[in-house]
Amino acid sequence: MDNKYFNIKDTLYNITEKYPEAIELLVSVGFDKIKDDNMRKAFGKTISLENALKLKKVNLDTFVSQLIERIENNEDKLNKSSKEKGNTKKYSVEMTGVLPCPVRVPLTETFERWLEDKDFNFELNYELKAASSGVEWIEEILKEQTEEELPDIFISAGFDLFFDKKLFGKYKEKNLFEDITDLKEYNRDFNNDYIKLKDPNNQYSVIGVVPAVFMINEEELNGRKMPTSWEDLLKPEFENSVSLPIGDFDLFNAILLNIYKLYGEEGIEKLGKTLQSGMHPSEMVKSHIRSSGKPAVTIMPYFFTKMARPGGPMTPIWPKDGAVLSPIFMLSKKDKKEILKPIIDFFASKEVGEILSHNGRFPSTNPNVDNRIPEENKYMWVGWDFIENNDISALIKKCEDIFDKAVKGEK
After folding, report:
1. Are residues 205 and 145 located together in one domain of the fold?
2. What is the DSSP pairing of strand 91-99 with strand 153-157?
3. pLDDT at position 81
4. I need a surface site. Which of 47, 183, 244, 369 has the fewest CB within 10 A?
5. What is the tally of structural domains in the chain?
6. d(Cα 324, Cα 378) in Å, to the nearest integer?
Protein backbone atom coordinates (compact mmCIF):
# COMPACT_ATOMS: atom_id res chain seq x y z
CA MET A 1 0.00 0.00 0.00
CA ASP A 2 1.80 3.12 -1.26
CA ASN A 3 1.80 6.31 0.78
CA LYS A 4 3.88 9.48 1.07
CA TYR A 5 4.90 8.94 4.68
CA PHE A 6 6.69 5.61 5.00
CA ASN A 7 7.61 2.40 3.21
CA ILE A 8 6.18 -0.83 4.61
CA LYS A 9 9.57 -2.49 3.98
CA ASP A 10 11.29 0.02 6.26
CA THR A 11 12.19 -1.09 9.80
CA LEU A 12 9.92 -0.59 12.78
CA TYR A 13 12.68 1.48 14.37
CA ASN A 14 12.96 3.94 11.47
CA ILE A 15 9.20 4.33 11.19
CA THR A 16 8.68 4.86 14.94
CA GLU A 17 11.59 7.31 15.06
CA LYS A 18 10.00 9.40 12.34
CA TYR A 19 6.40 8.89 13.46
CA PRO A 20 5.98 8.30 17.24
CA GLU A 21 2.26 7.78 16.52
CA ALA A 22 3.22 4.33 15.25
CA ILE A 23 4.34 3.20 18.72
CA GLU A 24 0.87 3.48 20.21
CA LEU A 25 -0.69 1.67 17.24
CA LEU A 26 1.90 -1.14 17.34
CA VAL A 27 1.23 -1.62 21.05
CA SER A 28 -2.50 -1.91 20.32
CA VAL A 29 -1.88 -4.89 18.00
CA GLY A 30 0.35 -6.77 20.40
CA PHE A 31 3.85 -5.25 20.20
CA ASP A 32 3.75 -4.21 23.85
CA LYS A 33 7.55 -4.08 24.24
CA ILE A 34 7.93 -1.55 21.43
CA LYS A 35 7.13 1.26 23.91
CA ASP A 36 10.42 0.48 25.69
CA ASP A 37 13.13 2.48 23.90
CA ASN A 38 15.82 -0.19 24.35
CA MET A 39 13.56 -2.96 23.05
CA ARG A 40 12.41 -0.74 20.20
CA LYS A 41 16.00 -0.14 19.12
CA ALA A 42 17.06 -3.77 19.53
CA PHE A 43 14.03 -5.48 17.99
CA GLY A 44 12.81 -2.64 15.78
CA LYS A 45 16.02 -2.48 13.74
CA THR A 46 15.79 -6.17 12.82
CA ILE A 47 12.33 -6.35 11.29
CA SER A 48 10.32 -4.44 8.70
CA LEU A 49 6.82 -3.15 9.33
CA GLU A 50 5.50 -5.55 6.67
CA ASN A 51 7.06 -8.63 8.28
CA ALA A 52 6.14 -7.55 11.81
CA LEU A 53 2.46 -7.31 10.86
CA LYS A 54 2.64 -10.69 9.12
CA LEU A 55 4.09 -12.12 12.33
CA LYS A 56 1.07 -10.93 14.31
CA LYS A 57 -1.35 -11.77 11.47
CA VAL A 58 -2.52 -8.15 11.36
CA ASN A 59 -4.14 -6.83 8.17
CA LEU A 60 -1.51 -4.66 6.49
CA ASP A 61 -3.85 -2.30 4.62
CA THR A 62 -5.95 -1.64 7.71
CA PHE A 63 -2.90 -0.92 9.87
CA VAL A 64 -1.34 1.40 7.27
CA SER A 65 -4.62 3.32 6.89
CA GLN A 66 -4.90 3.77 10.65
CA LEU A 67 -1.29 4.92 10.96
CA ILE A 68 -1.67 7.45 8.13
CA GLU A 69 -4.78 8.81 9.84
CA ARG A 70 -2.88 9.24 13.09
CA ILE A 71 0.06 10.88 11.38
CA GLU A 72 -2.23 13.38 9.71
CA ASN A 73 -3.82 14.14 13.08
CA ASN A 74 -0.49 14.07 14.84
CA GLU A 75 0.42 14.43 18.48
CA ASP A 76 1.46 18.03 18.06
CA LYS A 77 -2.22 19.00 17.94
CA LEU A 78 -2.74 17.47 21.37
CA ASN A 79 -0.16 19.74 22.93
CA LYS A 80 -1.13 22.93 21.15
CA SER A 81 -1.91 25.77 23.47
CA SER A 82 -3.56 29.08 23.26
CA LYS A 83 -0.19 30.42 24.40
CA GLU A 84 0.64 30.44 20.69
CA LYS A 85 -1.89 33.23 20.26
CA GLY A 86 -0.19 35.43 22.83
CA ASN A 87 -0.27 35.45 26.59
CA THR A 88 -3.26 37.77 26.94
CA LYS A 89 -5.69 35.53 28.81
CA LYS A 90 -6.75 36.15 32.39
CA TYR A 91 -6.56 32.53 33.58
CA SER A 92 -4.66 29.35 32.79
CA VAL A 93 -6.30 25.91 32.68
CA GLU A 94 -4.30 22.68 32.69
CA MET A 95 -5.85 19.34 31.68
CA THR A 96 -3.97 16.05 31.99
CA GLY A 97 -4.97 12.47 31.43
CA VAL A 98 -5.02 9.24 29.48
CA LEU A 99 -7.73 7.98 27.15
CA PRO A 100 -8.48 4.36 26.12
CA CYS A 101 -6.45 3.60 22.97
CA PRO A 102 -9.39 2.72 20.66
CA VAL A 103 -11.09 6.10 21.21
CA ARG A 104 -8.21 8.47 21.82
CA VAL A 105 -7.94 9.72 18.22
CA PRO A 106 -11.67 10.32 17.57
CA LEU A 107 -12.08 11.90 21.01
CA THR A 108 -9.19 14.31 20.63
CA GLU A 109 -10.22 15.20 17.07
CA THR A 110 -13.76 15.94 18.25
CA PHE A 111 -12.41 17.99 21.15
CA GLU A 112 -10.20 20.05 18.85
CA ARG A 113 -13.07 20.76 16.46
CA TRP A 114 -15.16 21.84 19.44
CA LEU A 115 -12.38 24.21 20.55
CA GLU A 116 -12.03 25.91 17.16
CA ASP A 117 -14.81 28.48 17.61
CA LYS A 118 -14.37 28.96 21.36
CA ASP A 119 -13.00 32.22 22.72
CA PHE A 120 -12.31 31.43 26.36
CA ASN A 121 -10.92 33.99 28.77
CA PHE A 122 -8.26 31.47 29.77
CA GLU A 123 -5.29 29.69 28.26
CA LEU A 124 -5.94 25.98 27.80
CA ASN A 125 -2.98 23.61 27.95
CA TYR A 126 -3.76 19.92 27.66
CA GLU A 127 -2.05 16.58 27.27
CA LEU A 128 -4.20 13.52 26.68
CA LYS A 129 -2.03 10.47 26.09
CA ALA A 130 -2.97 6.93 25.14
CA ALA A 131 -3.69 4.55 28.02
CA SER A 132 -0.93 2.28 26.70
CA SER A 133 1.60 4.90 27.85
CA GLY A 134 0.65 4.24 31.47
CA VAL A 135 0.04 6.73 34.26
CA GLU A 136 3.51 6.91 35.80
CA TRP A 137 4.00 10.36 34.28
CA ILE A 138 0.82 11.56 36.04
CA GLU A 139 2.08 10.09 39.31
CA GLU A 140 5.26 12.14 38.94
CA ILE A 141 3.15 15.28 38.44
CA LEU A 142 1.25 14.52 41.65
CA LYS A 143 4.45 13.95 43.60
CA GLU A 144 6.26 17.04 42.38
CA GLN A 145 3.57 19.74 42.17
CA THR A 146 1.90 21.75 44.88
CA GLU A 147 -1.87 21.94 45.30
CA GLU A 148 -1.90 25.22 43.38
CA GLU A 149 0.24 23.80 40.54
CA LEU A 150 -1.86 20.66 40.23
CA PRO A 151 -3.67 20.33 36.85
CA ASP A 152 -7.29 21.51 36.94
CA ILE A 153 -8.78 18.49 35.15
CA PHE A 154 -7.71 14.85 35.24
CA ILE A 155 -9.11 12.04 33.08
CA SER A 156 -8.11 8.40 33.53
CA ALA A 157 -9.47 4.93 34.19
CA GLY A 158 -8.62 2.82 37.21
CA PHE A 159 -8.49 2.82 40.99
CA ASP A 160 -4.85 2.92 42.02
CA LEU A 161 -4.06 6.45 40.84
CA PHE A 162 -7.14 8.25 42.14
CA PHE A 163 -7.42 6.54 45.52
CA ASP A 164 -3.79 6.35 46.59
CA LYS A 165 -3.73 8.16 49.94
CA LYS A 166 -0.26 9.53 49.16
CA LEU A 167 -1.35 10.92 45.79
CA PHE A 168 -4.96 11.86 45.09
CA GLY A 169 -6.12 10.71 48.50
CA LYS A 170 -4.72 13.76 50.23
CA TYR A 171 -6.61 16.04 47.84
CA LYS A 172 -9.79 14.04 48.25
CA GLU A 173 -9.66 14.63 52.00
CA LYS A 174 -9.27 18.35 51.34
CA ASN A 175 -12.38 18.27 49.14
CA LEU A 176 -10.33 19.75 46.30
CA PHE A 177 -12.43 18.19 43.52
CA GLU A 178 -16.11 18.42 42.66
CA ASP A 179 -18.37 16.71 40.15
CA ILE A 180 -19.62 19.73 38.18
CA THR A 181 -21.30 17.82 35.37
CA ASP A 182 -25.02 18.34 34.86
CA LEU A 183 -25.64 14.59 35.08
CA LYS A 184 -28.04 14.39 38.01
CA GLU A 185 -28.53 10.71 37.28
CA TYR A 186 -26.34 8.35 35.27
CA ASN A 187 -27.38 6.15 32.39
CA ARG A 188 -29.83 3.47 33.53
CA ASP A 189 -27.11 0.87 32.92
CA PHE A 190 -25.38 2.36 35.99
CA ASN A 191 -28.34 3.60 37.99
CA ASN A 192 -30.64 0.74 38.93
CA ASP A 193 -31.41 -1.74 41.70
CA TYR A 194 -27.98 -3.42 41.67
CA ILE A 195 -25.55 -0.61 40.78
CA LYS A 196 -25.20 3.07 41.70
CA LEU A 197 -22.12 4.40 39.97
CA LYS A 198 -22.54 8.11 40.68
CA ASP A 199 -20.34 9.35 43.54
CA PRO A 200 -22.64 10.17 46.51
CA ASN A 201 -20.00 12.60 47.83
CA ASN A 202 -20.07 14.49 44.54
CA GLN A 203 -16.29 14.59 44.16
CA TYR A 204 -15.57 12.15 41.32
CA SER A 205 -17.21 12.24 37.90
CA VAL A 206 -17.41 9.03 35.85
CA ILE A 207 -17.84 9.47 32.10
CA GLY A 208 -17.72 5.81 31.09
CA VAL A 209 -16.46 2.35 32.03
CA VAL A 210 -14.17 -0.38 30.72
CA PRO A 211 -15.96 -3.74 31.24
CA ALA A 212 -14.07 -7.05 31.62
CA VAL A 213 -15.72 -10.06 29.99
CA PHE A 214 -14.81 -13.65 29.11
CA MET A 215 -13.67 -15.06 25.79
CA ILE A 216 -13.99 -18.84 25.79
CA ASN A 217 -11.98 -21.13 23.53
CA GLU A 218 -14.46 -23.98 23.24
CA GLU A 219 -11.81 -26.27 21.75
CA GLU A 220 -9.82 -26.04 25.00
CA LEU A 221 -12.65 -26.79 27.43
CA ASN A 222 -11.96 -30.52 27.16
CA GLY A 223 -15.27 -31.61 28.61
CA ARG A 224 -15.50 -28.83 31.17
CA LYS A 225 -18.72 -26.88 31.41
CA MET A 226 -18.41 -23.41 29.91
CA PRO A 227 -17.90 -20.84 32.72
CA THR A 228 -20.59 -18.18 32.73
CA SER A 229 -19.66 -16.33 35.93
CA TRP A 230 -16.68 -15.27 38.01
CA GLU A 231 -17.76 -17.86 40.55
CA ASP A 232 -17.44 -20.57 37.88
CA LEU A 233 -14.01 -19.29 36.91
CA LEU A 234 -12.64 -19.79 40.44
CA LYS A 235 -13.50 -23.50 40.45
CA PRO A 236 -10.57 -25.98 40.62
CA GLU A 237 -11.19 -27.27 37.08
CA PHE A 238 -10.03 -23.93 35.64
CA GLU A 239 -6.67 -23.86 37.38
CA ASN A 240 -3.87 -23.03 34.92
CA SER A 241 -6.44 -22.36 32.19
CA VAL A 242 -7.06 -18.60 32.20
CA SER A 243 -5.36 -15.63 30.56
CA LEU A 244 -5.71 -12.50 32.68
CA PRO A 245 -5.07 -8.87 31.60
CA ILE A 246 -2.14 -8.41 33.98
CA GLY A 247 -0.56 -5.77 31.74
CA ASP A 248 -3.74 -3.68 31.85
CA PHE A 249 -3.26 -2.44 35.41
CA ASP A 250 -6.51 -0.49 35.60
CA LEU A 251 -8.67 -3.45 34.64
CA PHE A 252 -6.61 -6.04 36.51
CA ASN A 253 -6.79 -3.99 39.71
CA ALA A 254 -10.56 -3.71 39.29
CA ILE A 255 -10.76 -7.51 38.98
CA LEU A 256 -8.63 -8.00 42.10
CA LEU A 257 -10.74 -5.61 44.18
CA ASN A 258 -14.04 -7.15 43.13
CA ILE A 259 -12.88 -10.73 43.72
CA TYR A 260 -11.51 -9.72 47.11
CA LYS A 261 -14.75 -8.01 48.07
CA LEU A 262 -16.83 -11.06 47.14
CA TYR A 263 -14.53 -13.95 48.04
CA GLY A 264 -11.80 -12.53 50.28
CA GLU A 265 -8.17 -13.66 50.26
CA GLU A 266 -9.23 -17.18 49.32
CA GLY A 267 -10.80 -15.82 46.14
CA ILE A 268 -7.57 -14.02 45.19
CA GLU A 269 -5.62 -17.25 45.77
CA LYS A 270 -8.02 -19.14 43.51
CA LEU A 271 -7.72 -16.43 40.85
CA GLY A 272 -3.93 -16.75 40.98
CA LYS A 273 -4.15 -20.50 40.50
CA THR A 274 -6.23 -20.03 37.35
CA LEU A 275 -3.48 -18.06 35.61
CA GLN A 276 -2.02 -19.63 32.51
CA SER A 277 -0.75 -16.45 30.92
CA GLY A 278 -1.11 -12.69 30.87
CA MET A 279 -1.42 -11.29 27.36
CA HIS A 280 -2.24 -8.01 25.67
CA PRO A 281 -5.94 -8.04 24.66
CA SER A 282 -5.01 -7.96 20.96
CA GLU A 283 -3.04 -11.19 21.53
CA MET A 284 -5.89 -12.71 23.54
CA VAL A 285 -8.36 -12.64 20.67
CA LYS A 286 -5.89 -14.65 18.57
CA SER A 287 -4.76 -17.04 21.32
CA HIS A 288 -6.62 -19.94 19.68
CA ILE A 289 -4.05 -20.01 16.86
CA ARG A 290 -1.16 -20.75 19.22
CA SER A 291 0.43 -24.15 18.68
CA SER A 292 0.50 -24.80 22.43
CA GLY A 293 -0.38 -23.21 25.75
CA LYS A 294 -3.79 -22.09 24.61
CA PRO A 295 -5.91 -20.69 27.46
CA ALA A 296 -9.46 -22.00 27.77
CA VAL A 297 -10.64 -18.61 29.04
CA THR A 298 -9.31 -15.11 28.45
CA ILE A 299 -10.44 -12.07 30.43
CA MET A 300 -10.39 -8.93 28.31
CA PRO A 301 -12.01 -5.54 27.77
CA TYR A 302 -15.36 -5.87 26.01
CA PHE A 303 -13.98 -3.87 23.05
CA PHE A 304 -11.52 -6.59 22.05
CA THR A 305 -14.17 -9.32 21.85
CA LYS A 306 -15.40 -7.59 18.70
CA MET A 307 -12.04 -8.28 17.05
CA ALA A 308 -12.47 -12.06 17.24
CA ARG A 309 -12.88 -13.86 13.91
CA PRO A 310 -16.52 -14.86 13.25
CA GLY A 311 -16.98 -18.61 13.01
CA GLY A 312 -13.88 -19.36 15.06
CA PRO A 313 -13.73 -21.26 18.34
CA MET A 314 -13.67 -18.11 20.48
CA THR A 315 -17.03 -17.37 22.15
CA PRO A 316 -17.62 -14.14 24.10
CA ILE A 317 -19.43 -14.48 27.43
CA TRP A 318 -20.75 -11.58 29.50
CA PRO A 319 -20.51 -12.94 33.08
CA LYS A 320 -23.98 -13.44 34.55
CA ASP A 321 -22.77 -12.06 37.89
CA GLY A 322 -21.56 -8.94 36.08
CA ALA A 323 -18.73 -7.66 33.93
CA VAL A 324 -16.11 -6.18 36.26
CA LEU A 325 -15.90 -2.49 35.45
CA SER A 326 -13.02 -0.08 35.64
CA PRO A 327 -14.46 3.47 35.75
CA ILE A 328 -13.14 6.23 33.49
CA PHE A 329 -12.89 9.03 36.05
CA MET A 330 -12.86 12.77 35.44
CA LEU A 331 -11.78 15.04 38.27
CA SER A 332 -12.08 18.83 38.23
CA LYS A 333 -10.96 21.45 40.74
CA LYS A 334 -13.76 22.84 42.82
CA ASP A 335 -12.37 26.37 43.06
CA LYS A 336 -12.30 26.73 39.26
CA LYS A 337 -15.64 25.18 38.46
CA GLU A 338 -17.08 28.24 36.71
CA ILE A 339 -14.08 28.41 34.38
CA LEU A 340 -13.93 24.64 33.81
CA LYS A 341 -17.65 24.09 33.28
CA PRO A 342 -17.68 24.25 29.43
CA ILE A 343 -14.85 21.69 29.15
CA ILE A 344 -16.43 19.39 31.73
CA ASP A 345 -19.76 19.61 29.93
CA PHE A 346 -18.06 18.61 26.67
CA PHE A 347 -16.52 15.45 28.13
CA ALA A 348 -19.78 14.54 29.88
CA SER A 349 -21.82 15.16 26.71
CA LYS A 350 -23.86 12.74 24.64
CA GLU A 351 -21.45 13.26 21.71
CA VAL A 352 -18.46 12.09 23.73
CA GLY A 353 -20.56 9.36 25.33
CA GLU A 354 -21.39 7.92 21.92
CA ILE A 355 -17.72 7.96 20.88
CA LEU A 356 -16.87 6.01 24.04
CA SER A 357 -19.77 3.61 23.72
CA HIS A 358 -20.17 3.12 19.99
CA ASN A 359 -16.57 3.51 18.79
CA GLY A 360 -14.84 1.91 21.74
CA ARG A 361 -17.46 -0.31 23.41
CA PHE A 362 -16.81 1.60 26.63
CA PRO A 363 -20.36 2.17 27.93
CA SER A 364 -21.14 5.80 28.75
CA THR A 365 -22.74 7.19 31.90
CA ASN A 366 -24.59 9.89 29.92
CA PRO A 367 -28.31 9.08 30.31
CA ASN A 368 -29.04 10.03 26.68
CA VAL A 369 -26.64 7.46 25.20
CA ASP A 370 -27.85 4.06 24.07
CA ASN A 371 -24.95 1.83 25.13
CA ARG A 372 -26.40 -1.03 23.09
CA ILE A 373 -25.88 -3.40 26.01
CA PRO A 374 -28.70 -5.91 26.64
CA GLU A 375 -30.60 -5.08 29.82
CA GLU A 376 -29.82 -8.47 31.34
CA ASN A 377 -26.07 -7.79 31.13
CA LYS A 378 -25.03 -6.61 34.58
CA TYR A 379 -21.89 -4.94 35.89
CA MET A 380 -19.73 -5.76 38.90
CA TRP A 381 -18.78 -2.64 40.85
CA VAL A 382 -17.05 -2.54 44.25
CA GLY A 383 -19.19 0.41 45.34
CA TRP A 384 -18.41 3.75 46.94
CA ASP A 385 -18.88 2.41 50.48
CA PHE A 386 -16.15 -0.16 49.87
CA ILE A 387 -13.86 2.58 48.53
CA GLU A 388 -14.56 4.81 51.53
CA ASN A 389 -13.94 2.01 54.03
CA ASN A 390 -10.66 0.73 52.57
CA ASP A 391 -7.21 2.02 51.73
CA ILE A 392 -7.60 1.06 48.07
CA SER A 393 -3.95 1.46 47.09
CA ALA A 394 -2.78 -0.67 50.04
CA LEU A 395 -5.48 -3.25 49.36
CA ILE A 396 -4.44 -3.56 45.71
CA LYS A 397 -0.85 -4.19 46.85
CA LYS A 398 -2.07 -6.82 49.32
CA CYS A 399 -4.12 -8.56 46.62
CA GLU A 400 -1.19 -8.48 44.20
CA ASP A 401 1.05 -10.17 46.77
CA ILE A 402 -1.53 -12.91 47.47
CA PHE A 403 -2.07 -13.38 43.74
CA ASP A 404 1.66 -13.62 42.97
CA LYS A 405 2.22 -16.19 45.72
CA ALA A 406 -0.66 -18.29 44.40
CA VAL A 407 0.77 -18.13 40.88
CA LYS A 408 4.11 -19.38 42.23
CA GLY A 409 2.42 -22.05 44.33
CA GLU A 410 3.54 -20.44 47.58
CA LYS A 411 1.48 -20.21 50.77
Report:
1. yes
2. parallel
3. 44
4. 47
5. 3
6. 9
